[in-house]
Each structure stands twice: as C-alpha cells, then as structure tokens.
Amino acid sequence: MHTPGSSVSGYTLLLVVQVVFIIVFGFCTDYAKELLPVKNETAKTTAAEPEASNLRKYPHFQDIHVMIFAGFAFLMTFLKRYGFSASGLNLLVASLVIQWAIIMRGCYEMEDGIIPISLQNLIGADIAAAAVLISMGALLGRTTPIQLLIMGIIEIAIFAGNEYLQLELVRAADVGGSITVHAFGAYFGLAVSFMLRPKKEQARAGPLEGSSYGSDISAMIGTIFLWIFWPSFNSALVDGADQERAIINTYLSLAGATVATFALSALVSHEHKLDMVHVQNSTLAGGVAVGSICNLLIHPFGALIVGVIAGVISVLGYRFLTPAILSKLRIADTCGVHNLHGMPAVLSAIFSSIYASFASHETYGTSLATIFPAMQQPTNGTEPGEPLEYVIGGYGRTGAKQGAFQLMAIGLTMAIAIVGGLLTGLILKSPSVRQLEEHELHKDDAFWETPSEESTTTTSTTSNTTQEASHQ
Amino acid sequence: MHTPGSSVSGYTLLLVVQVVFIIVFGFCTDYAKELLPVKNETAKTTAAEPEASNLRKYPHFQDIHVMIFAGFAFLMTFLKRYGFSASGLNLLVASLVIQWAIIMRGCYEMEDGIIPISLQNLIGADIAAAAVLISMGALLGRTTPIQLLIMGIIEIAIFAGNEYLQLELVRAADVGGSITVHAFGAYFGLAVSFMLRPKKEQARAGPLEGSSYGSDISAMIGTIFLWIFWPSFNSALVDGADQERAIINTYLSLAGATVATFALSALVSHEHKLDMVHVQNSTLAGGVAVGSICNLLIHPFGALIVGVIAGVISVLGYRFLTPAILSKLRIADTCGVHNLHGMPAVLSAIFSSIYASFASHETYGTSLATIFPAMQQPTNGTEPGEPLEYVIGGYGRTGAKQGAFQLMAIGLTMAIAIVGGLLTGLILKSPSVRQLEEHELHKDDAFWETPSEESTTTTSTTSNTTQEASHQ
Amino acid sequence: MHTPGSSVSGYTLLLVVQVVFIIVFGFCTDYAKELLPVKNETAKTTAAEPEASNLRKYPHFQDIHVMIFAGFAFLMTFLKRYGFSASGLNLLVASLVIQWAIIMRGCYEMEDGIIPISLQNLIGADIAAAAVLISMGALLGRTTPIQLLIMGIIEIAIFAGNEYLQLELVRAADVGGSITVHAFGAYFGLAVSFMLRPKKEQARAGPLEGSSYGSDISAMIGTIFLWIFWPSFNSALVDGADQERAIINTYLSLAGATVATFALSALVSHEHKLDMVHVQNSTLAGGVAVGSICNLLIHPFGALIVGVIAGVISVLGYRFLTPAILSKLRIADTCGVHNLHGMPAVLSAIFSSIYASFASHETYGTSLATIFPAMQQPTNGTEPGEPLEYVIGGYGRTGAKQGAFQLMAIGLTMAIAIVGGLLTGLILKSPSVRQLEEHELHKDDAFWETPSEESTTTTSTTSNTTQEASHQ
Q1: CA-based nearest residue in chain A for residue C214
Q2: Do B22 and A81 touch (CB under 8 A)?
Q3: Average pLDDT for residues A417-443, to the nearest whole number?
Q4: Which of C262, C367, C445 sits opposite A462 (nearest CB)?
Q5: For residues C260 and C368, what is the distance between their CA atoms, to the nearest angstrom?
Q6: Average pLDDT, chain C
Q7: E strands, B11-69, in order
C-alpha cells in the first residue's frame, strides 16, 4: 500500500538546484546601491531619500507575503486528505521560485552585469510566485512534488520574459497583475493539466477529490486572508492617489463579487443551498477582475459593477463550465483556477481596453503619463532625467490605440502561457520523471509521513466511537 | 430531513439590493478630490499632503480589516456544526454592510450632494460593520442568512445616525468605539434576540449549541487575531502622541484582561478547570473596556486596572449572567456579546465620564481640544480655518459637564440600540420572512451543501472506525 | 479519571501577581515624555519628530505581535490533544510576561526612577516574551500552567539582565536576537527540562506525544505566520539601509532553509517521505541562523548559504540528535527547540564572529558605528549629544576583537541560560508546586473543560459511525 515518497534522485536534484542558485546569486547579484554603506559622509543625506521610499512599501509587501504564503497555502487545503501537501508544498514551491524569480526578473534590470537587490525585487518575486501557485492550483493533487518544482522553474523563466514584454515593451497597464500574473498562471496551469490529462475512462472526480467539514474551514483561512489583503496586492506598485484609488476600487470590487457570489451560488445550486467552493473562490474573483483597471478612474460604482460581474461569471464557471471542460476536454482543474483567475483576468483585460480607449489628457491630467506611459508624447521635455525607452508601436498613442495594445497584451500572454504550459506538460510527462499512480491522487500519504488516525482514537480517552463499537 | 436553503426570493432580493447599491454609488459618490487627477500641474505639490496622510493609515486599516473579516469570522466558528455559516456569512454580511455603511455614513459628510470617498470611508465602513457582526454574534445560529442581511441593512442606517449624534453633536470622546460600536452592536443584537426569543419550553441550549475540540481551536484563530490587532482598532482615528498612547493603553488593558480571565475562569469553573468560552471572549474584554479612554492620560497602571476589571466582569457574566438572562428573559446570546461587548463598553463609558470630569487644560495642554473638542472655548481664534460646528450644549464645557455628556452618550446609544433592535426583531419575525425551524438551529446543513462525512470515512484508508464496527 | 485543574491557590496567586504588577506600574512607570501633553505651545513642533519615529515602527511591531501571539501559539498546537493549552497558555504566559518584561527591561533605562513607556517598550516586551515561549516549547505538555507562569517570571528577570549585559556592556551585534532571545530561550528551557526529566523507565514518547492530521494543519498556521513575519522580527530594531538589508537577508535565508529542509527531510526519513515536524520547524531555522548577522554585508548569496546550512542542521537534529538526547540525557524537548532555536542560534553567533572579524571602516563606512558600536573610536567628536557609555573591553575594538566579543556573548548567554534554567527547574520541582501526573502528560483534559466528543457524534445527523455501530 505504501509507495516510496519519491525517488531519492528528485530531492537530491533539488539540493543541487539550490546550490546552483547560490552560485548564481554569488556572481550575479548584490544589494542595490542605496543599501551599500556610504563611504563618503557627505553623500549620506542624499542617499536617504530612495531607501526610505522602498521601506515605505514594506507593509504592502508583508500583506502580499501573507497572501502568497498563507492565503494560497490554506485555500488549497480544502481537499480532505491533501492538507499537508497544500500547505507544505505551497511553502516549498514558493521558497524555490522566489529565488529563481529574483534572478530571472533581474535579467531585465541588470546594472553592469549585477542584479541590484532591494525590497522591490522581493515584492516582484512574491508576485511572480503567485503565478506558479495559481498553476499549482489547477494541478492540485495530480502531480508529484518534484513535478511541481520542475514546472515552477520553467514557468518563472517564461513568466519573467512575458512580464517584461507586456509591461516594458507593449506597455500595457496592469498594476494588479491580472494579465501578467492571473491570466498567465491560470492558462499555463490549464495547459499543463491538458498534457497530464488522464485516460478517457479515468476522467472523473476521484474518491478523495472533495472536502471534509474541517478542511473546508481551513480553506476559509486562505480565502479570507486573500480577500483581506487583495487591495495591497493590486496597489503595491503604484503611489499616492493612484495607490489610494487602487485600494478603494479593489475593496469595492471584492465586496460586490462576494454579494454576487452568495446570491448566485444559492440560485444555481442544488436545493438552493450555498456551495463552499463558490464562497472560497468566487468571492475573490472581484480582486482579479479589477486588477488591470484598479488605478484608473473607474469610480466606485464601476468597481462594484466589475466585482458583481466577476462573481457571477465565476460561480457560473464552477457550476457549469468546469464539469464540461473535465468531461469534454479531460482538463482537470482541481481548484477551479479558470473560474477564479482565468476568466476574471480576461474580463479585467477587456475592461482595461475599454477604459483605455476613453482615456485622455483631459480626464487623467498629469497622471496619464504614469498610468499609460506610452500615451505620453515622445519628446517629453517636462520630465528630465527619465529617458523614454523603446516600446512596441512607439509613444504618443491615442486612447484607442492603447486600448488595442491592452487586448494585444492579454492575447499574447494567453498564447505564451498556453504554449509554455503545453511544452512544460510534455516534459513532466516524460518517462524520466516519476508520475502519480491513480491511487495516489489527491492524497498526502504517498509523499508524507502521516499520523495514524487509529492510534489517536485508541489512546484518546474522550473519543468513544471505537470503544462503543467494541463493547457490543 | 433536508429543507430548502432558503426561498429563492431571498437571494434574488439580495441581488436586487446589490444593484440598488450600485445605482446609489453611481449617483451619490465619487473619489475624494485629492484622489482625482490634477489638471493644473502647479497644483500637484499642494495636493500631495492630504493624500499622504490617508495612506499613512493604511497599515492600521489593514489590521482592522483582519479583525472584521478574519477575527470575527473565526471567533464565531466555535459552534461544532456552524463553521460554514460563521466564516461564510460573516464575509457576506460584512461585504454587504460595508457598502451600505459608506452610503449611510456618507450622508453626514456630503459635499455638493456627493459623498467623497477615500481610505477614511473604508476605515469607517469596516468599523460600522463591526457593530453588525457583534449583533450577529448574539443571534448566531438562530436566524436565516436573509434575516441577518435584513438586520444588517436596518442596523447600519441606525448606527450611522447614532454615530453622528454621539460624535458630532454630543461630542462624546470615544476613539475606540466602545460606545458607538460595541455597546450599540451588543444591545441592538440582544434586543433582536429578545424579539426572536423561543417559546417558553424551548428556552434551553440546543443539542448543537456547543463546541467540538476542533471548532474551539479554529475559534482561537479569531480570538488571537482580534487580540493582536485591537490596539490598531482603538488607535486608528487618532494621530501622533494620542495614537501611541491609545496603542500602549490597549496593549496593557488586553494583557491585564487576559491574566484576569484565566485566573477567574479557573476559580469559578467546575473542578477549577479553564473554560474555552472565557478564554476565547473575556480576554478581549480589555480592548472594549479601554476603548473610550485609550487616548486619555489613564497611565499604564490605569490601563491594566481597566483590563483586569473587564476580564473579571466578563467571566462572571459568562458564568452567571448569561444563563440567568436565558432562563429568566429567554434572551439567547450565543456568543455572549453582552459579556464581551455590552458590559465592558458600559464600563468604558463610565470610566470615560470619570476621566473627563478631571480633565482640564492644565493636565492635557494643547491636546485637550483634540481629545474633548467641546471643551475648547467657543471663540478659539488660534486654530484658523476650522470653524466650530454646532454641538449640543455648546462649547466651553467644563470637565464635569463633559463627563455628564459621556454618560448621556452611552445612555442615548443604549436607548437607540434597544428600540432599534426591538423594531428590527419585529420585522424579522413578520410572517413574510422565513424563520428557522427548531431542528435547523446552530446547523450549517439547512443552508449549505455540506460534505458527507460517511463517504470520507469509507474512502479514507487511514480512518478505521467504520470498518472496525462492520467487522464485528 | 478527572483530576482538579489545579490547586485554587495557584490561580489565586496569579491574581495576586497581577495586582502586584499594577502597583509596580503605578509607582515606577509613566508614558515617555514625548507622549505626555505639551504644555508649552511652542514646544509642539520640536516634539513631533521623535514620536513619529516610534509610530513608524508600528507595522513592524504588529508583525512581531502576530508572531508571538499567533505564530508561537499555533505552532505549538501540533500535539493531537494539547491544542487548548498550546493556544490558550501561549496567550496567558505571553500576557503575563510582557507586563513583567516592561518592568524588568525598564530597570535598565529608568529616568528619575520612572520607566518611560513608549512603543519601543512594547516591541522589547514582545521580543522578550519570545524567549519564554521558546522555553515553553521545550517543556510543552510536561508542566502545569502554574509551573509555566513561575518559569516565565524567573526567566524574564534573567533574560533582561542578560540582554543588557550582551547588548550594552559586551556590545555584541545581535539585531535579530539570535543570541539574546533564541539561544537564551532554548537553553534555558532545555535546562528546565533536564531538571524535570522523568524517571529512567519513563523516558520515552508518551501515547499523546504525537500529532493528528488536523493538529498538523493547525500547527502550519503557526509555522507559516512565523515564516512570513520573521523579516520583521529581525529588522525591527534597525533603520534605513540596515533595516532593508535585514529584511532581504532574512527573506533569502528562510527561502534557502525551506528548500534544504524539504530535501533533507525526504532524504533522511523513513521511505523518503516528508516529515511534518521538519516542515513545521526547520523551515524557520533560517530566520534564527541569520538573526545576528542579518544587517551585515553578508550579501544575498551569503544569506542563502546560512539558510541552507541552518535547514540541514535542523533536520539532522530532529532526526538524530533529539532522540539521542532523550534516551541518553532524558531531556525531553517536545517542540525540538534545540533544533529550531538552539543550534541555529549558536550558528548565527559563530557567523557573526566571523563577519565581525572582517569588518572595518573601509567596508562598512559610516554605518560601522551603528552596527558595531564598540568599534568606534572612544573620542568620537563627530556625533555630539550621544555620550559613549561604559562597555566591557572599551571602545575602539578591531574587527578581530569584536569577533571575540561575539563569541563571548553567546558563551555567556548559554552559561547564564543553563544555570538559570537549572535553578528554575529546581524551584518547579519543589514539593510545594503541583507536578503533572504521568497520565496528564500532553493532554488538555487535566486543566481544561473539554467538549465531550461522544455527544457530538450522537447529535450530529451527518456523522454516522455511532449509529452504524448501534444498528448491528
């Protein structure tokens, strides 16, 4: 009944990868200049400013840190017998890919061959990890730990390239990462899931692919902390009034999505009862759907509308689309990331395109250059010191053109994610990589030492079921 | 055995209410001025100051956000079979009433018919939601979800009016909201509970009105996060030295209440064992009892004394008063909000009256005007730009007069809460609103799809109780 | 089968201690000067600066607060039948000792016989509480609540003296508290455990000294929140670039330790399966091991190396050392604090000695005086207003000399902790203090009213085990 946790070679390889990362860090990274000691005493005062601006982001960073390491972890504990893996592997995968994300994302901001490391890189790494954890959600319970790690390594490399492409070259507006993080992570994971799809006769929910009363409560820990800190996720990369608008819009969108989720869940469910799957996931769709537009002038009522639509779409997705995808395409999506991250992210991109089309200097004033950098005029002499870099399609875009580029960003992202995911899935399926047996699906026991429940019952003096039975 | 979750009409109505909220937001709200783009470039520098001051409150806001959405949610999961409702309905009710609170509270601060929305409104909305969640605690397990939502809508409207009355017209000092939030929420909920009281023969604890080992642990998640972030709740609305004093006093009061709670719990309980109900709730009474006075010069020892008294009163309330109220008045109070919020809040108001009586310009210096605004002289020419508004009883109050107004604030608040709660209970009891059947009390299964425990046992290879029984 | 929770006298004594604390607070403490009202209006502006600098630390404080009250609490809930004690007694012990720590630590910073209280004291008190909670981890399930409280009182007094000795007199660099908190708490607790060691024939793991599936998940709440906020713990007492380096280094060290922990856990465990004990604890060893050096120029790769080594040592400790210590020395270490806190802290001290040896004004520039204060020249006229205080061995240390003092700090700390722990254990063993019976080990039921599981099973309509059995 017991199978070996994994080939020893897998975990040995993990150690080797960690050592390689250390070597890369040794040769290619150092603290950012403002974090190195000041040799010249007079230079001290001028250096104080930039470092302070990083530390000002620290509370935002910690909120995101809670989302990545506690929110995602506990949300995934909903399966009745996969809680060790959900909370443990979330920690392992994230710990590995944040290191790798610092390197991969750093490639695009090297100075003299060295990646300058500050709190900014940590925030970026945590956000990148979210993409991998979203993909993990699609595959939850269907891979070995080593497969997840391999996927994470490949995904981060592609993620970093795509992020650079969309934000720096296409210059899409996406402060909350709906395009670069949520859409990317969801469709990447679904593509991997497609490659790992079971044989025809096995394409059904397994016996352990459900929750228990207790695991549903622990999943709510994840949901609620994600819900609480989502405004920090969406607003971390902007400042001032933009940041405060991002907070307000995300807060309202989440509230709207939550109300819509409960109402729809009862209306479409069996006997009009509420479904925990919807409550745990669709309530968060409002945070995703407002991601690309949360710093725009969508106004409070706009934020609520976006949230309500996201909640409705997400519940309908769980109720009707996920079962259809499983039975028709045999794509399993354990956590339903298509409904929580995929569709709401596409919605966000579409909204961002619409709002961008109507954006102009009249409505956005001086903040237009911050929100839609490519809409600035190419020879902008009023902001000295910040040279305009190369962007696809050039500067001086009209609103409509920016709107088109928003759609290009989501289209390119989905294409890259799907192709990347398919290739990654091919690698994970290769004979040299250990696959899960069917009886190991959604079960900790294959990879974890798990406490024997029997002995608990016997030794505990207050749990009487066994005794009662044996008294008969 | 299964009854329909709720009439479809209830959840349809919820969607309608959400749409109405969106329309109201569309016509009556917009971002506060400092969050709208700057058209005039020269105006940018001057606008930077106020927005920064809002964002400075963001970490405080997030702490309160954790209390409302994680703290209250998990604290209420203590019932053995009501965890889905506790964590889920907390999220639903709060998501609905924060929207409504922004509107209702905004009525008193409209500018040109528009409610200006900033981070301040979000903080205020979260605090208002606390009042509703406290009332929900009194009723936990005794209402349908729709009844809770109806109650929340009515309660917020009354809450906003009472808050304006006490803080702007009576000008009571209440930075931690003990009067306007805790006393209001507790007595409102108890009044509703009185209206929904069971028939005489049913006034006893139901079979599911208790905890399980696991649910007591998950309730501790709520307790501990509420405990941790209470200093943020009490200090969010003040600044500088006032804020730091509020933090220190709340911290010490909670510590004192916790020690007193454990000692009393053991001393008054059966076999001198500790009672989880006390630990989960009375430890927090110190945060409530110091609420109205936490920014005053109560000094560290004063904060400890207040906390100890609150812990003692709260434990005694759970041990002796709650059972008496249930048997004599048939007022059920599932979470014991009278002991955690009600009595400690009254205590806080009494203390605030005493401390106010001794307050003077000699002791408080220049901060007197901030702490007790109505004690300023009416023609205060030293603070230009801030016109003194209308207050009941006028400015230039003596300490003793301010003390009397503190008592007036708690008296008025309790009267308004009780009358409001009774009327609300009358509405909730009306034949057009679905009531709980007796067998549905304190049970998720009536409104939630719950996992079948039987199938868990059968499929899990490590849980042997069923098998053992059937082997005989 | 039921034994009284504790002698009434124990809890009465607790109340007396609380009253004594209030009296001491009344006579010996007050708010720090900048928190007292400004009498002179012109003085207001100058006073604004220092208070702001305290409040700037508030988010860091709250992160640490989460670690102490939620992190430690839930980490210790891993035992299958000790969750009430773990989460409850953590709250009680911490609430008592933070008060006492404010007094004891305040003895060394009195002004005119009064301890000035600000947010700084609260941060210091929380950090001191960590030492006691670490010791509690070593003893978990083997003491009565009253024994824990007695230990906490004694330990804080010794802790405060040792902290002053190492930081102010020896002038060791230890911003993350690895020496003064982690090593001290671990070895103190182990020394107490040695004194309370069982008779020879009982030196084995008891029947309840293990986890259940659910308790392992709730322990992960603790692990994950500790993991998330460890960078705040290590960086709370420094500022600017030092703080940002401390954050980055701790973040990376934790990531490295986590990867190493998982790999090693699988490699050394039975059937190469992952062990939850390692995941819950050794992942955090990276935070301890980087504690004393996190603000130094260890560079990102150095932080990763430290973390990896800590993870490896910690897992090996759990796997091989803890069982050996138990069987050879009969020192029980329920949570394995020697592997999570003890050895990684010694490692940190050794690293700090090495790094200090190479420190110089050339590498550290102007920040040398902040990081290694005793390496400043004794007549430092460039920083007026800060008189140099007495330090052992005098100012103007070379790097090598500072390195030697780092080793002296860890050596002295371990000696003081062990002697203090042995004496404390002697007191706890005295006949006047109630001891645990063997059948009370690792069990809540002796001191807590626990819900009867039987009634749960009977009344719940969805739990069918009992019914099934009785149908036969």
Answers
A1: A214
A2: no
A3: 94
A4: C445
A5: 32
A6: 90
A7: 29-31
